[in-house]
Design goal:
InterPro entries: CB, DNA-bd_dom_sf, DNA_brk_join_enz, Integrase-like_cat_sf, Integrase_catalytic, Integrase_recombinase_N, Integrase_Tn916-type_DNA-bd_N, Phage_Integrase
Low-confidence stretches: none
Family: Belongs to the 'phage' integrase family.
CATH topology of the largest domain: DNA polymerase, domain 1
Keywords: DNA integration, DNA recombination, DNA-binding
CATH class of the largest domain: Mainly Alpha
Strand content: 5-15%
GO biological process, one term: DNA recombination
Largest sheet: 3 strands, antiparallel
Number of strands: 8
Organism: Johnsonella ignava ATCC 51276
Shape: elongated
Radius of gyration: 30 Å
Number of domains: 3
Length: about 270
């Protein structure tokens, strides 16, 4: 019967465990792709002390528990090593049928990830605290609440993809956003009748703004978006039946272009 292998404290090693000459422990295993992998730790069990001058970390056997769970859950070890930026690139690659404005927002988020340390983290290393810290950094940099919320929603969707693909087990962006930063957006208030009349009186008399009087009247009477108003043509107005048809808008994103409303509900008529 072969002699059992032991560490320098006379503890018996389990299968795959060993100890190097410098005292560091190692574990050898085969990942889900059939490749040999090694993990290392200065402690064999949680109660061991980390040697002086060495970086503290979880013990080897704690790491082995995580590895075995990943193997049993068929977590993809290669996918988990891609960065957050690479995950976002992969995510939007398969959702390419979007509007020009959406592509612009995507470029802005991509640039943000390139400039922030979150973008360079491996997705299997991103924790909820990392995601929350990113939200706070965005706020400190002056990003608006709505922008941060939209970016976080995009990254939440990215990590859902990563979970479905077995790259990671949990979604670090799945947290209550309102507990991290407060919504400081000033809510819009509709003008009163008196305020509307005061505004129109001013516009009628002002030499600069009076040319916009009719536009303002239409906006106040219909609640059209500015892009919808700018896209109006005579063909969209039925003077006989007193109708305004809305089925397109004029947008600008580097260049001006006509686009349909964002949703089907955006196609409507006003009396």
């Amino acid at each position: 019967m072969s002699e059992k292998r032991r560490d320098n404290k006379n503890r018996i090693f389990r299968t795959g465990e060993s100890q190097r000459k410098d005292g560091k422990y190692a574990y050898k295993y085969i990942n889900n792709l059939g490749k040999i992998q090694f993990v290392y730790a200065w402690k064999l069990v949680p109660t061991d002390r980390t040697p002086n001058g060495k970086k503290d970390d979880i013990s080897l056997r704690e790491k082995i528990v995580q590895i075995e769970k990943d193997l049993n859950d068929n977590i993809n070890p290669i996918g988990g090593q891609m960065t957050v930026k690479e995950l976002y690139e992969r995510h939007i690659k398969y959702k390419s049928n979007v509007r020009l404005g959406t592509n612009t927002v995507r470029r802005h988020l991509m640039k943000t990830l390139e400039q922030d340390k979150l973008g360079g983290l491996s997705i299997d290393k991103v924790k909820v605290s990392d995601a929350k810290d990113w939200v706070l950094r965005m706020k400190e940099k002056g990003y608006a609440y709505g922008t941060i919320k939209n970016y976080r929603r995009s990254l939440l969707a990215c990590f859902y993809t990563a979970v479905r693909e077995d790259y990671v087990r949990k979604n670090p962006f799945s947290f209550d956003f309102s507990t991290v930063i407060e919504d400081t957006t000033i809510k819009k208030q509709a003008l009163t009748k008196e305020q509307e009349e005061s505004l129109l009186t001013f516009i009628r008399k002002d030499t600069v703004y009076k040319k916009y009087h009719d536009d303002i009247v239409v906006l106040l009477g219909t609640g059209l978006r500015i892009s919808e108003l700018c896209g109006l043509t005579l063909n969209d107005i039925d003077f006989e039946n007193r109708l305004i048809n809305i089925d397109h808008q004029l947008l600008a994103c580097g260049k001006k272009y006509i686009a349909p409303p964002k949703t089907k509900n955006g196609i409507r008529q006003y009396l």
